[in-house]
Amino acid sequence: MKIVKADYIYINGKYKKDYGILFNDKIEVVDIYNNLIFKYPDLDIIDGGENSVLYAGFINTHTHLEFSANKTTLKYGSFLPWLYSVIENRDELINSCDEVIIDNAINDMLKSGITSFGAISSLGLDLDACIKAPHRVVFFNELIGSNPQTVDSLYQDFLQRFEASSLYQDDLVTPAIAIHSPYSVHPIVLKKAISFAKNKKVPLSAHLLESKAERDWLDNSDGDFKEFFSSFFNQSKAVTTVDEFITSFDSYPTHFTHCTEANNNDLKRLKEKGHSVAHCPRSNRLLGCSRLEIEKLIDFNLPFSVATDGLSSNFSLNIFDELRGALMLHNKADINLLSKKLIDSITTVAGKVLGLKCGDIKEGYFADFVIIKLPQKPQREEDIALLTILHTKEVDKLYIGGKKYV
Ligand code: BEZ
Ligand code: FE2
Fold first, then answer.
1. pLDDT values of the chain reduced to their tens digit, one per residue, 406 residues
2. Domain 58-354: which topology?
3. Is CATH 3.30.980.10 the classification given to domain 2-56+358-404?
4. Is the shortest distance between the CB of 184 and ligand 1 below 6 Å?
5. Is the CB of 84 under 6 A from ligand 1?
6. Residues 376, 377, 380, CA angle at the centre, nearest 5°?
7. Residue nearest to atom 8 of ligand 1 (CA)
8. Residue whose CA is closest, atom 4 of ligand 1?
9. For residues 345 and 279, is the Cβ–Cβ distance under 8 A?
10. In this structure, which residue's CA is closest to atom 9 in ligand 1?
11. CA of 184, nearest ligand number
12. Cβ neighbours of residue 111 under 8 Å, at least 6 residues apart?
């Protein structure tokens, strides 16, 4: 066992001074540092040092590692041009995404303090890298397919990928299920996949209402998707409506990504049924999507995480870049309150969303934590969350399951 101390430890929404943590692979005791060294005088001590702040390890609930090769290929600015560019370059992007590229993406997350992440996997090509990663990984096997002629074979392929990831289930790897989106998954397989997730009791996630094009297509079978579905799938009508899609998830809490086009009714419904939202501010900006009105989510008490999405719609997987993006995007929010919400969104909230025993400095939870160093002494406690977001690019120390990785 070891003891770690820092100038401040973020516990339950408060920056606690003079605290320490006794840990092995789990957090054993959280107490005033002097009490700990009095009770356990002979243990190794890790001292965060001057101007240090200790947080539960950060959790990125939504990324796509298989698209990590994209840097200059995909077209940004508007959703459909982006989607066309994904389809045009998909094979090349996926084939050029080798182990080194995925490992680099994973390592960038680690350096920014990510100790757990949710990997949305379209093909299973990122499974090996996720298993080898030091992180706690929730491996979301993705289901896609709106064409009734091909959905059954796509469902079988999805099941095989799910079973392959299940072989590695342990404290670090959780198999899980992702539904691509309401416009791209046929309701027949959607219902099968949801009951499968419920039976297996695994995390469930889905992209939802990301673009105006998606809203127009689901509401009126019209808009920018009309031409897309007609030319690629010979489809003239959406396979589902927003209500039908959301209702399918009523009995199983799900993590819905984006929701930038969700209206008040949709958001209230998500709250009522125990769902949560993954907010990807930089991805939304780059794909020309609306701003997610997080003030509404806060009003409705609908939990949200902040996540990076993949490098197919972002320029880094550094979680601090994402938090700074959120801070700039939501320019009307009180800056200190927003900063704390953002920190909570990648710790406490994200841990609960992924069903992991981490994201909190709490006895019995995994000893997943990071220490960051502020460049100078903070003058006011209420500024610490903001200062952390502004001044951190990489963490100073990082532990997962009590083992040091940074
Ligand atoms: C589909 O399989 O229907 C689909 C796939 C990608 C984008 C849109 C639709
Ligand atoms: Fe995504």
1. 999 999 999 999 999 999 999 999 999 999 999 999 999 999 999 999 999 999 999 999 999 999 999 999 999 999 999 999 999 999 999 999 999 999 999 999 999 999 999 999 999 999 999 999 999 999 999 999 999 999 999 999 999 999 999 999 999 999 999 999 999 999 999 999 999 999 999 999 999 999 999 999 999 999 999 999 999 999 999 999 999 999 999 999 999 999 999 999 999 999 999 999 999 999 999 999 999 999 999 999 999 999 999 999 999 999 999 999 999 999 999 999 999 999 999 999 999 999 999 999 999 999 999 999 999 999 999 999 999 999 999 999 999 999 999 9
2. TIM Barrel (3.20.20)
3. no
4. yes
5. no
6. 130
7. 184
8. 184
9. yes
10. 184
11. 1
12. 318, 394, 395, 406
Say yes or no: do domains 2-56+358-404 and 58-354 share a fold: no
Place of tokens 């560019």: 85
Ligand 2 mean position to 124 CA, how many Å? 15
> Which of 85, 90, 183 has the most ligand 1 atoms within 8 A of CB, as the residue to mutate?
183
d(CA 117, CA 158): 20
DSSP string, 177-204: EEE--TTTB-HHHHHHHHHHHHHHT--E
Q: Enumerate the domain spans of the chain.
A: 2-56+358-404, 58-354
Catalytic residue among 66, 210, 214, 261: 210
Q: What is the pTM of this model?
A: 0.98
- With a 6 Å cutoff on the Cβ, whether 54 touches ligand 1 is no
